[in-house]
Amino acid sequence: MPNKHPQCAKCGIPRRERLCQAATDGKGPEFCPTRAGTKATAAARAAYADPARLEFARQSVIQEGSGYTDRDSRPYAVKPRLQEICEFAARMGYRKLGLAFCISLQQEAAQLTKVLESKGFTVVSVVCKVGCIPKEELGVTDAEKIRIGHFEPTCNPVGQAETLNRTGTEFNIALGLCVGHDSMFFQHSRAPVTVFAVKDRVTGHNPLAALYTIHSYYRRLLSD
After folding, report:
1. Whole-model pTM above 0.90?
2. Can you name the residues that pair with 69 across neighbouring β-strands?
3. Pairing state between β 68-69 and 77-78
4. Helix, strand, coil proportions of the chain in percent (round to 5)?
């Protein structure tokens, strides 16, 4: 791309006039990756040629559409993410699901498991503290712990992934893993991963709340 990185978040072109949305006469600013990223698009198309990846992508698109009920009416009725995860897993023919969750969301994990099992899935769940590895083994000092002067096991996302890998889960669900820990879980999980909810202790696990109030309660986040 000509000295410009993609900046889709800054695109000011009306949505239906954008090059990524319009079939023939769309517009794109200089930083538009649809306009200038032909090699990336070609690589993506080549990747979709793999039959397994193509089927996963196809079912994902079908699930996206089915997430809107009464599509011939306005406004659309929509489904909650919980329902969509169940439907997508069924579309893919998955029967054994993995659930990697934060220990602080134990009750939510139990409820999620109950729902998934009611749909006929086998659920393998593993908590973040699996293995009880001391934080000191990762080079964390006592002063860097949450409870200074006490034993604390580290979150173990690699252990969560390895546990699910060894049980042969077909599709894994992340629930409330910490920033960074979720990234490590994604890296080490053999099965594809979806996120049911992310951790945000302040906003009731709804991180968009900080953006919705960025010019009022959370305006401090815009400063250095």
Report:
1. no
2. 77
3. antiparallel
4. 45, 15, 45
For the chain, domains (ranges, CATH) are 94-224 (3.40.50)
pLDDT tens figures, 154-197: 999 999 999 999 999 999 999 999 999 999 999 999 999 999 99
Q: In what order do the strands lie in the sheet with 122-127?
A: 122-127, 96-101, 171-175, 193-197
DSSP state of 191: S
Taking Cα atoms as reference points, which of 39, 89, 88 lies closest to residue 64? 88
CA distances from 58 to 8, 52, 191, 193, 195 (A): 24, 10, 17, 16, 19
Please tell me whether residue 198 adopts helix, strand or coil conformation: coil
The encoded tokens of residue 32 equal 């538009």
Distance CA 193, CA 190 (A): 9
What angle separates helix 106-118 from helix 81-91, to the nearest 10 degrees? 50
